[in-house]
Amino acid sequence: MRKLILEDFLEDIDYALIGIHCSIEDYRLAYLLNQHLGLNLKRKASDIEYNDTSSYSIFEWEDDKQLTVWNLASNTCKIEVKDAIDADSLFINDESFTKTKHLIPEYKKVNFILKISEIPNQNIEKVILNKILSIPQVMTAYSIDATQLKTTDNLIFN
């Protein structure tokens, strides 16, 4: 009798995640990260889209020297939803409201996610984090443990 162990087939997480809290626009944050970290993040031609209802901006840079891929993705998406009509009501409700969706629902207060693929070691992640924290427009930033996320599929950007 053979035994199949599922963990053998799951890929190890080979990227670092940093959650960034700030209230500036995505393109402005990408510009500041480029300046402070020496990156070359550029907006991708198409946004990340899920279920044709939510869309998240994404910037990318492939560092050929370090063989890493950097992604900056918005964690929030605001969509306008029409209020459902109540069949039991005499009145038609024609109101709409704004609903907020998140790329990583476990971190709803995070505005942006910085994903660094194939990061060589933890010390570099700490240096990157300190440089991000030195940006005046960033309120706070911290490492996110990807092994604790239920929505890691949302972090596959290719």
TrEMBL record:
It comes from the Bacteria. InterPro entries: IPExxxVDY_fam. This is IPExxxVDY family protein. It comes from Lacinutrix iliipiscaria. The lineage of its organism: Bacteria, Pseudomonadati, Bacteroidota, Flavobacteriia, Flavobacteriales.
